[in-house]
Amino acid sequence: MSIQHRLVEYRDGDTLLEGYLAWDDSQKEPRPGIIIAHTWRGRSPLECQRADQLAKLGYVGFALDMYGKGKLGNSPEENTAMMQPLMDDRAALQKRMGVALDIAREQPEVDATNMAVMGYCLGGLCALDLARTGADLKGAISFHGLFDAPGNIGKPQIKAKILCLDGHDDPMTGNDKVVALQQELTEAGVDWQLHTYGDTLHGFTNPEADMPEMGIKYNAVADRRSWVALTNFLAEIF
After folding, report:
1. Which of 12, 101, 118, 150 has the most CB atoms less than 10 A away?
2. How much is the pTM?
3. Alpha helices in the chain (DSSP H)
4. CATH superfamily of this structure's domain 3-237
5. Which residues make beta-bridge pairs with 24?
6. Does residue 23 register a pLDDT over 90?
7. Per-residue DSSP letter, 202
8. Mind listing the pLDDT tens digit for each residue in 56-79?
């Protein structure tokens, strides 16, 4: 087994983007593809590492780009400045996610009929929003993602099964938002799961996350448990 990767340039309108594709070259047939939406920082080594991990499991991982080629924040202020325009224009966010899904489907290593999306933080919201658009997905997975429903989709037509992995003490997903998401998914007739990890803050999968004053902190136990939940979910949907 040898994990290969390549950078894939693509565009959303005038914006040049760059994703990271990872696959196991010992498998010659196309295999399920999983697109990975990044945190508020931008496509970083963390998402590329996750793509490699998925490739080792027999999938094709595609760490997508929401901000533009080479854009990577180095502070909460920079991260917020890049994230906010997409949060303010959810239709644009959804379109960019759709472009990434289409690009991933075009890769020769990918079985275009078997696709899923996952994401972290901002990327968790991106994953849920792509599913809300009715995209042809087998699954959508949110790791410590934001749950706020978009204002531009009145009645989501969700085809994907949904898995949300959430920290109980995450200040960004208070109980009211959890209940609202559960109601939204239930009313949409979705096959959904929500796993909540106790004594766990936002960003629990990122070993570099260490801003407890902002409610952001790595948690090794929750990180491990959530990855097991992901692998079980992927085995089920594919």
Report:
1. 118
2. 0.97
3. 45-56, 76-88, 90-106, 122-132, 175-187, 220-237
4. Alpha/Beta hydrolase fold, catalytic domain (3.40.50.1820)
5. 3
6. yes
7. B
8. 999 999 999 999 999 999 999 999
